[in-house]
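Budget justification aside, the reviewers requested a transparent look at the raw inputs and outputs of the sequence design task funded under Objective 1. We therefore reproduce one unedited record. The lines immediately below are the structure tokens for a 270-residue chain.
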């Protein structure tokens, strides 16, 4: 009889994608939520359910899904960067219906950006023939940012100046969110909306965002992967007389939903 040592024993996959041997890549993507149809037949079925009226906008789809919730799973939900779909959002967990409810809410609120942490589970073909990765999203990390929500968090109306400020922040999110550095960057910037008092203060002081930098943290707790992420601001009217303002986060990206470690530090530098 052939003897097998303990070191030769490996756990087999269960087919559910949760085996350690089948670890799914993590992603923290930020972009614009959209939708399309996997086939003309599905588009026609949606039109028929809608009384023969085609659904072409996010608000129209959100209104329809409030009374046809099961239809949400037949929609191809996309995440776009610069108007180009780069991911399909495809829930696969037991909480899939809750994910669809949240996605529908984002459409109803006309969110300008959504953050989608999750796992890459494969790929999907879009209507234009392109094949893009599919994300199984982490429900607790899904966040949408509408104009109304941003105004509420920043405590002021979004005038042209503030939109320009936020636009510069959004430029820092033009990445696929797959590397640890990108996940740390995307989380730090979107988490910045949550600490809106600091962003509001920066906007009120006529500060512009210079850049968002990410570096590996020299100190990190066991079992974590820590990245120091800094948002650097400058005053365009006082480039030579006023120091740069820096907000620094330490982000642990070891889990599907990144987390801040410690506080948010403010410092000046030249």
């Amino acid at each position: 009889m052939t003897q097998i040592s303990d070191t030769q024993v490996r756990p087999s996959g269960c087919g559910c994608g949760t085996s350690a041997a089948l670890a799914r890549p993590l992603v923290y993507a930020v972009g614009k939520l959209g939708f399309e149809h996997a086939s003309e037949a599905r588009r026609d079925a949606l039109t028929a359910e809608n009384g023969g009226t085609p659904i072409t906008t996010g608000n129209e789809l959100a209104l329809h899904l409030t009374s046809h919730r099961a239809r949400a799973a037949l929609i191809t939900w996309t995440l776009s960067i610069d108007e180009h779909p780069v991911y399909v959002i495809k829930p696969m967990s037991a909480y899939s219906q809750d994910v669809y409810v949240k996605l529908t809410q984002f459409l109803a609120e006309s969110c300008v950006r959504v953050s989608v942490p999750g796992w890459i589970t494969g790929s999907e073909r879009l209507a234009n023939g392109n094949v893009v990765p599919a994300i199984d999203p982490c429900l607790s990390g899904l966040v949408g940012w509408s104009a109304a929500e941003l105004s509420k968090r920043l405590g002021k109306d979004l005038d042209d100046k503030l939109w320009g400020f936020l636009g510069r922040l959004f430029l820092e999110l033009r990445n696929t969110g797959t590397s640890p550095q990108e996940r740390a960057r995307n989380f730090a910037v979107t988490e910045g909306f949550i600490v809106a008092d600091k962003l509001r203060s920066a906007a009120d002081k006529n500060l512009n965002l210079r850049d968002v930098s990410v570096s590996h943290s020299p100190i990190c707790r066991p079992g974590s992967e820590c990245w120091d992420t800094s948002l650097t601001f400058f005053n365009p009217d006082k480039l030579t007389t006023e120091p740069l303002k820096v907000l620094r986060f330490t982000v642990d990206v070891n889990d599907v939903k990144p987390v801040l470690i410690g506080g948010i530090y403010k410092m000046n530098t030249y």
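The first helix runs from residue 40 to 49. The chain has seven helices and eleven strands. Computational costs for records of this kind are itemized in the attached budget.
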